[in-house]
Design brief:
Elements: H1 2-15, H2 22-34, H3 36-53, E1 55-56, E2 63-64, H4 70-73, E3 81-85, H5 88-97, E4 103-106, H6 124-133, E5 138-141, H7 147-160, E6 165-168, H8 184-192, E7 195-196
Parallel strand pairs: 3-4, 3-5, 5-6
Antiparallel strand pairs: 1-2, 6-7
Length: about 200
């Protein structure tokens, strides 16, 4: 019975992942167990390496295996632009769309009076510091088109007013939409049609 309990524990953990419920997790685990040499063992090895080495980039907040992520470390990305996003998944969505060649800044969430999340709970002070030290010419606000996302965008805009050119994503991002759920074409259109605030 012990192996069954361990498999059930794996199914339970997998079911907690976004997009997977108990049935999908059971199917995935069954497939991994059936093909353990090609799926389960390599997955376990990679997951252990990621668990040991993954960390937040101290500069932008991206997930990396080094203290400074590849995007921040790249001299070619130091073009004077910083795209501000809410979460690492938003950064990855922008990278997937391949429409932005500058650097990013992950706020780590949005301002929320209901949840007592203020600027100091987010990475907004670090953004202001970066604007002063990295010769930033333009800040592109690519936050969610939700009430909290727009509140955060306005707060950032007020905090950096008159220091840099300030733009935001335009058409293509629906009200209430989040970058991680948008297709590449929508992200491309929104980036190309950004406007001054």
């Amino acid at each position: 019975m012990k192996p069954v309990r361990e498999i059930d524990a794996l199914i339970d953990i997998m079911a907690r992942l976004p997009g997977l419920g108990p049935r999908s997790a059971r199917r995935a685990v069954l497939q991994m167990v059936r093909k353990r040499e090609f799926l389960l063992k390599p997955l376990a090895n990679v997951m252990q390496r990621v668990a040991d080495s993954a960390r937040e980039c101290v500069n932008c907040g991206n997930i990396s295996t080094t203290e400074i992520c590849d995007i921040c470390a790249s001299d070619s990305r130091a073009n004077g632009q910083i795209c501000v996003v809410q979460d690492v998944s938003d950064l990855w969505a922008m990278e997937r769309a391949n429409v932005f060649e500058g650097r990013y800044h992950v706020t780590g969430g949005t301002l929320s009076a209901l949840e007592n999340i203020g600027p100091d709970e987010l990475r907004i002070p670090k953004l202001i510091e970066r604007i002063e030290t990295e010769k930033v010419e333009e800040v592109i606000l690519a936050l969610s088109a939700t009430v909290d996302g727009q509140t955060t965008a306005h707060y950032i805009a007020d905090s950096i007013e008159d220091r840099v050119k300030l733009t935001s994503l335009a058409q293509g991002v629906p009200i209430g939409g989040e970058l991680d759920y948008l297709d590449d074409g929508t992200i491309t259109a929104a980036m190309n049609a950004r406007r001054s605030l």
